[in-house]
Amino acid sequence: MDTNNIYIRQLKALIQSAYSSNVYQFLNHPSIVAAIQIDTANQEKASFQIQKIVDDLLGNVRVNSISIYRNIPDMIENDTDYAKEVRLIGPHYKLIRKLSVNKCTGVAKTNRGVAILENEDELYEYMKRFGNMHKAKLDSALQAPFPQKWDNSINLYDWGCGQGIASMVFLEKYEKATVNRVTLIEPSKVAISRASLHVSVYRPDVQIKTICKKLDILRPDDFNISGANIHIHLFSNILDIDDYSPTHLFKLIDECFNGINYFVCTSPYIDDIKAEKLNSFMRHFQNNYDSFMKISEATNQKIEGSAFWCCNNVYNGFPCEEHDENVISCMNRWSRITRVFLAEQ
Question: Dihedral sign, CA of 66, 67, 68, 69?
Answer without folding.
Answer: positive
